[in-house]
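Bug #77: duplicate submission created two jobs. Keeping one. Sequence:
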Amino acid sequence: MSEILDIAHEMAHDLFKAGAMDEITMRQVKALCLPPQRAFQPEDIRRIRLANHVSQAVFAAILGIGKTTVQQWERGERRPSGPAQRLLDLIDRKGLAALG
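Kept job's structure:
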């Protein structure tokens, strides 16, 4: 599904650049192309971090949070907030390079 959304977003962006789509419609397309928010389990967060070959401290720095927060997520003591869930989803789908 993510690939289809990426293609739809790219097509809409091209139409916008060509002047065939207005800014409001482009914003609506962007909102529609967002993947559904995922709930991450502790093992998901650890898997994502390990798949990107980073320590808890480095992962925390990349996400702009404290190392303790990553530790609590991975132990199931806390859950990521909405913005953190979006970042985790992006990193899971596209890797850390997507943030750079």
